Amino acid sequence: MEWTTLAATGLGALVGVGSTLLADRVRRRHDATERSRRERTEIYVACLTTFRQAHEAMRAAASGDRADERPGAVDAAVREAFRESGCNEARETALICAPEPMTGVIDEAFLTLRSLRGVLASGHAVPSPEYREARRVHNRAVTAARTAMRADLGRTP
């Protein structure tokens, strides 16, 4: 056997193994990127859904049975609804797992929800101007977060 045949066979094997390794590396990187995108999607959906459920629970607590007119009863009920909603945990999960540029919009949505909690806890009824303004600010923050989340996930609105 001539050495050129042997060298050509070795070079062919080297090119074949190299291209297989390169293709495998590209596939792994793509899979990791896709897995990360799916995880972020789940976290973002859980975060915004939890914020929404917290808002609904606080509204229900604030406009619930007003027969209990003890001082601080509405405040306690609204704050308890906020605490039990899990939005603190959803926020922390999102802040830990989301890319740095996303943390600001997530935090803003949470902080406006907390302001909404303050309005409801202080006794302002759902149709009050104070509640409507706090809700408008919160809706704007949630819309901004949703838009940023879509952009982060590579989805167009």
Structure, explained:
This protein is mainly alpha-helical and 157 residues long. Helix content is 83%, strand content 0%. It has helices spanning 3-62, 73-85, 87-97, 100-121, 129-152. It is rod-shaped. It starts with a helix and ends in a 5-residue tail after the last helix.
Strand content: under 5%
- The chain-level structural class is mainly alpha
* Tally of separate helices: 5
Low-confidence stretches: none
Task: Report helical residue fraction.
Answer: over 70%
Over the alpha carbons, how many angstroms does the gyration radius reach?
26 Å
* Topology order in helix (H) and strand (E) letters: HHHHH
Task: Let me know the largest β-sheet.
Answer: none
Distance between the termini: 64 Å
- Cα shape: rod-shaped
Provide a brief overview of the structure.
The chain has 157 residues and is mainly α.
Task: Give short descriptive properties of this protein.
0% strand, mainly alpha, 157 residues, single chain
Itemize the secondary structure elements and their pairings.
Elements: H1 3-62, H2 73-85, H3 87-97, H4 100-121, H5 129-152
